[in-house]
Amino acid sequence: MSDTRRRVKVYTLNEDRQWDDRGTGHVSSTYVEELKGMSLLVRAESDGSLLLESKINPNTAYQKQQDTLIVWSEAENYDLALSFQEKAGCDEIWEKICQVQGKDPSVEVTQDLIDESEEERFEEMPETSHLIDLPTCELNKLEEIADLVTSVLSSPIRREKLALALENEGYIKKLLQLFQACENLENTEGLHHLYEIIRGILFLNKATLFEVMFSDECIMDVVGCLEYDPALAQPKRHREFLTKTAKFKEVIPITDSELRQKIHQTYRVQYIQDIILPTPSVFEENFLSTLTSFIFFNKVEIVSMLQEDEKFLSEVFAQLTDEATDDDKRRELVNFFKEFCAFSQTLQPQNRDAFFKTLAKLGILPALEIVMGMDDLQVRSAATDIFSYLVEFSPSMVREFVMQEAQQSDDDILLINVVIEQMICDTDPELGGAVQLMGLLRTLIDPENMLATTNKTEKSEFLNFFYNHCMHVLTAPLLTNTSEDKCEKDNYQTAQLLALILELLTFCVEHHTYHIKNYIMNKDLLRRVLVLMNSKHTFLALCALRFMRRIIGLKDEFYNRYITKGNLFEPVINALLDNGTRYNLLNSAVIELFEFIRVEDIKSLTAHIVENFYKALESIEYVQTFKGLKTKYEQEKDRQSQKLNSVPSILRSNRFRRDAKALEEDEEMWFNEDEEEEGKAVVAPVEKSKPEDDFPDSYEKFMETKKAKESEDKENLPKRTSSGGFKFTFSHSTSAANGTNSTNSKSVVAQTSPASSNGSSSKPTNLTSSVTATKGSLVGLVDYPDDEEEDEEEETSPRKRPRLGS
Question: Which residues form the PP4R3 EVH1-like domain (predicted)?
Answer without folding.
Answer: 5-101
